[in-house]
Amino acid sequence: MSWERNTALQDRLIRAIDLAKVPVFLIQAENDYSVGPSHALTKEADKKKKDFQSKIYPAFGKSHQDGHWGFCSTATEVWGADVLAFLEAQMKAAP
Questions:
Q1: With the C-alpha atoms ordered 66, 67, 71, 73, is the resulting torsion angle positive or negative?
Q2: pLDDT > 80? residue 47
Q3: What share of the chain in percent tops pLDDT 70?
Q4: Residue 56: beta bridge partners?
Q5: What is the overall mean pLDDT for the chain?
Q6: What is the pTM of this model?
């Protein structure tokens, strides 16, 4: 909701990617308040060669709030298999 106008938040999340020591999978619905985080954090992770994936799913519900909170909390049938596949791949790759 505040990504575009909150540079402190942007800086903090980019710094979190820089410091990440574990794989990250970021999911967002296309109608979230902003998909800027997916684009910016993917770009940063690629630059730093971090184990990072992101996926923007089709719009969920009818509002930005649906695409934000509703998507993450109630749309597990949409993103659940992808998250489980990501976790399974990461567990197999772990030493």
A1: negative
A2: yes
A3: 99
A4: 28
A5: 95
A6: 0.90
- Nearest-CA neighbor of 33 among 54, 55, 3? 3
Residue 71, judged by CB atoms within 10 A of its CB (0-12, 13-18, 19+), counts as buried
Q: Answer whether 28's CB lies under 8 Å from 54's CB.
A: yes
**For residues 38 and 56, is the Cβ–Cβ distance under 8 A?**
yes
DSSP letter at 33 equals S
Q: Over the stretch 16-32, which tens digit does the pLDDT of each residue have?
A: 999 999 999 999 999 99
Written as six digits, the tokens of 32 are 């979230």
Buried residues in 23-35 as b, exposed as e (16+ CB within 10 A): ebbbbbbebbbbb
CA distances 20 to 7, 37, 56, 71, Å, are: 20, 16, 21, 25
